[in-house]
Amino acid sequence: MKKTTLALCALCAILFSFAQANHQKRKIILWSFAENNCEEWKRRKADIDKKFNIDLQIELFGQNAFIQRLQAVMTDGEGAPDIIEWLIENNRILSKDPEKSFVIPLNKFIAKSTINNNISAGRLSLITYGGNIYGLPHDAHPVIMVYNDTIWKNAGVDVAKIETWDEFFEKAKLLRKLDENGKQKHFALPSSGMGLYDTMFMVWQQTGAQILTKDGKPNLNSAEFKNFVLKWNNWVKSGAMTTWDWGNFYKLIKDGTYASYISPDWWVSQTDPAVEEGRYQFRVRALPQYKKGIKTGSSWGGSFLGIPKGTKDADFIFGIIQYIQYDNSALEARFAETEMLPPLKSFWNNSVLDFEDQRFEGQKIRRLQADSAKILKPITTGDIFWELTSIFRDNYRSYTSGKLSFDEMINNSQQDGMETYKSVFEKKN
């Protein structure tokens, strides 16, 4: 009887210790909109849980549902997650005023962390409002040019030797070959014609023509931006561009309609079906220079991890998001799976970037992407930055349809931008 009692006591002690250990694990809630990233973090959950003695819970939402729910819980002051992942290129949660932002500035945490000065300044600039860095970016998403070497050389052009965009579009005139129906067969670039979006957005980043002033006001009527738009319009009028078609993009590469395109790392695979077909030979290169002698990079897309206001032990949570985003072994596994370049400059020296890609005659495309990331210019962003791109898009489309003159387009964009600025910052005055 005594032995049975002792055994039961020992069992109870073990069960109590196990319950206590589980009880000590803090549940950490992460909200995201990106299924692929969530799958990676779920695979790493055991490792993350063990390292921080937590129970990481990952919840996936559609983009609209994500924002609606986040706004609701932040307003109510209850039920907010500990970590969020959100789009870099869609601001509905950040503000230069930390009191108005849904997530907290990370400057002080970054400054004392191992990643200080190791994250691409160009990428951080997209989530820096009023000097406040609000997140840790997941990828660098550098931009390069992919081109159909066969088509260009048949037109007598070696794209690898082109230095500037002006030269590129001048050479693109040689692509004007007609099919049996009298239509142009090959185009230098696809573009949606929606203003600061896709191709125009990526080339604009090279110019340094900021659309916001440092204090967050519209700057669409600056001489630098106007000169860029004028230059862009001349390129469009040259007939070198055709419609950016998301659904048929790879088909238009296969049939030679797109003789080249500007691509972030996540879009290069659109060339794969054409490579497999074997009709054409493809190559890659850095973007042509906007101004001769001035090399600049570009990027497009991406997400970041942030810490919502009210989260307990923000310094502890910062350690978690830093590990989730930038643990070295996880970075290597992520890159091997996705070929999307991390934003850490230290990774850009990794030997895996020396891979010779047979899709492009053995070129080292990964090294080329890293070189683009190294010369990515910081962009002045702020509360109305993305609204400003939409305002410009609407006026630009009115201009291209003949409803507005060039000066009217610029003036209307600036005036509409100022109205938006006032509604955000001056409505209480």
The gist of it:
The protein is α/β, with parallel strands linked by helices. The chain contains 17 helices and twelve strands.
Keywords:
3-stranded antiparallel β-sheet; D-Maltodextrin-Binding Protein, domain 2; 429 residues; 5-stranded mixed β-sheet; 2 domains; 43% helix; alpha/beta
Protein model, in words:
The chain has 429 residues and is an alpha/beta fold. It folds into two domains: 23-141 and 301-374, Periplasmic binding protein-like II (D-Maltodextrin-Binding Protein, domain 2), CATH 3.40.190.10; 143-298 and 384-425, D-Maltodextrin-Binding Protein, domain 2 (3-Layer(aba) Sandwich), CATH 3.40.190.10. The chain has helices spanning 2-24, 35-43, 45-52, 63-76, 107-111, 121-125, 149-154, 165-172, 198-207, 223-237, 249-254, 272-277, 314-326, 328-338, 365-374, 385-400, 406-425, and strands at residues 26-32, 54-60, 83-87, 128-129, 132-133, 136-137, 143-148, 189-191, 241-243, 260-264, 282-285, 303-306. The strands form four sheets. The protein has a five-stranded mixed beta sheet, covered by helices on one side. Strands 10-7-11 form a three-stranded antiparallel beta sheet. Strands 4-5 form a two-stranded antiparallel ribbon. Strand 4 and strand 5 (132-133) form a beta hairpin. Helix 16 packs antiparallel against helix 17 (406-425). The protein is globular and about 75 Å long.
